[in-house]
Amino acid sequence: MKRSDLKKISDYIWQIPKTYRKDMRVDARFFASDSMLDEILRDKSLDQLVNVSTLPGISRFALAMPDMHEGYGFPVGGVAGFLADTGIISPGGIGYDINCGVRLLASGMSFDDVKDRLHEIAREIFRQVPSGVGRGGRLRLKGQEMDKVLENGAHYMVQMGYGREEDLEYIESSGRLTEADSSFVSDKAKKRGRDQLGTMGAGNHFVEVEKVEKIFDENTARRIGLYQDQVVVLIHTGSRGLGHQVATDYIRLMMAVMDSYSIQIPDRELACSPFASKEGQEYFRAMSAAANFAWANRQMITFEVRQAWKSVFGDSELKVVYDVAHNIAKIEEYEIDGKKQKIVVHRKGATRAFPDQIVLIPGSMGTGSYVLVGQKESLKQSFGSTCHGAGRRMSRRKAKDTVRGSELKQDLERRGIAVSAGSMSGLAEEAPIAYKDVDAVVDVVHRIGIAKKVARLSPIAVCKG
Questions:
Q1: Which three-class secondary structure string do you get for 424-440?
Q2: What is the pairing mode between strands 327-336 and 318-325?
Q3: Phi, psi (rounded to 5 degrees) for 268
Q4: Which of 170, 188, 376, 390 has the highest Cβ tally under 10 A?
């Protein structure tokens, strides 16, 4: 794809008209500044976005956020809405890490209160929160316990004593999708997840201690309990091996049944089935269960971080500010062609940004993260969605070839950031050079008006697998 194929709608909105390719059902639209275009055009993310626009039942347009990059079938940073009665559901539009998401915890402490104990708290969080590929946690779910987690999410963790009722008030969907049905999750998936609650995993997942570096919107910051130089904790992880297996199971199933529904797609990675079909409903219920598992996971990690915090700082409080998913499909209502219609909104590397809803945008390691608040414009422009992070610009392999983990660790610590990591190669994979500029990404969605800046956070301690 070339720049000449793009139509500029405004300073930050670009469109690939549906005349670009004869199989497109709707226009493809993406958000970016002019300076981002060359990098975006280097990979296949826009070609993947065009492919998404060909899927049955797609409504309005296929969308991509400024943190977009090439993914499995759908681009990461992609948003697509499908009519619930005539459209499809596609596991590739949610991703393998179902309900990968972010939770923010706020302390009552300032940076001056903790600055001399950063290495201590980093080591203690790393000790309390298991990390690494396949690493298990302190819980080992048996029999019906797994089903209860899959169907009740964070609620079941609170019932088990791993949180407080008030935590649930500050989680998207209260930490539970009621459509979940554990019977549609395979035994293999359950087996993979049985000891993974309360674990971080590897890749770009982390627990970071951060300080509130800058406040952009004093009123909103005050409403949600944030203030200048406050110490907060950001948790980023998802549904671990269980979610990955659910995706694997249903991608295989949908590849097998597409022909029976006369669905033709330009890329097998877009495997899908009608949302209303038997297979579509089974996947949606299994995906919802995996999403609940992810919320239970972040709830358990919250418990572990609170234990670490208490061990180092005594009885200082850690309050849940909010928890958002950024790999998920949800049924939402939008006005389409003058009437309210149910839409199956796929968000893959994209965050829900309903008006006045808190949005959490983690940046690359050692740079910064953002707290935003959704705006009404998001309902018109983006199916109530915004970006989810900085977005990769370099593969993990290339990052490891470019950066030495030990040198990165030294550089971060010279900048006053305490680091606890299980693997230097894993650290190198997530080097800031491997990611886009989160400030530039957030500036785009702020200027479009789909999400508004509230605060910028800067890391002071990093824990990674």
A1: HHHHHHCCHHHECCHHH
A2: unpaired
A3: -60, -20
A4: 390
Residue 333: Cβ-neighbour burial (10 angstroms; 0-12, 13-18, 19+): exposed
* List of residues 6+ apart from 383 with CB closer than 8 A: 60, 63, 79, 81, 332, 334, 343, 345
Written as one string, the DSSP assignment of 182-244 is: GGGS-HHHHHHHTT-TT---STT-EEEEEEEEEES-HHHHHHHT--TTEEEEEEEE--HHHHH
Name the residue among 203, 205, 217, 223 with its Cα closest to residue 106: 223
Which tokens sit at 163? 């949180």
Rounded to 5 degrees, what are φ and ψ at 367?
-105, -90
**Residue 351, SS3 per DSSP:** strand
Contacts of 465 (CB under 8 A, 6+ apart): 131, 132, 133, 135, 200, 201, 202, 203, 205, 421, 422, 423, 426
Tokens of residue 349, six digits: 């590397």
* The pLDDT of residue 390 is above 70: yes
For residue 388, indicate whether it is catalytic.
yes
93: tokens are 């539009």
**One of 244, 326, 346, 388 is an active-site residue; which one?**
388
CATH of domain 3-131+203-240+295-393+435-464: 3.90.1860.10
Under a CB-based contact definition with an 8 Å cutoff, are residues 324 and 352 in contact?
yes
Record the tokens describing residue 264, joined without a space.
């033709």
CB 352 within 8 A of CB 172: yes
Q: Among 288, 62, 65, 69, which residue's Cα sits nearest to residue 175?
A: 288
Handedness of CA 443, 449, 451, 454 (dihedral sign): positive
Give me the amino acid identity at 250.
Y
CA distances in angstroms from 381 to 81, 134, 170, 259, listed in the order given: 12, 39, 25, 33
DSSP-derived 3-state class of residue 38: helix
Q: Give backbone dihedrals phi and psi of 227, rounded to 5 degrees, phi first.
A: -150, 165
CA 373 to chain centre: 16
Q: Which residues contact 22 (CB under 8 A, 6 or more apart)?
A: none
With cut-offs at 50, 70 and 90, classify the pLDDT of residue 143. Answer: confident
Tokens of 161: 């004593």
Look up residue 17 and give its DSSP letter: -
Residues in the chain: 465
Check whether 195 has a pLDDT greater than 80: yes
Give pLDDT tens digits for 9-68. 999 999 999 999 999 999 999 999 999 999 999 999 999 999 999 999 999 999 999 999
How far is it, in rounded angstroms, from Cα 393 to Cα 436?
Answer: 6
The pair of structure tokens assigned to 99 is 């309900």
Q: Which residues of 429-453 are buried (b: 16+ CB within 10 A; e: fewer)?
A: bbbbebbbbbeebbbbbbebebbbb
Strands (E), 307-421: 318-325, 327-336, 339-348, 351-352, 358-361, 369-374, 385-386, 418-421
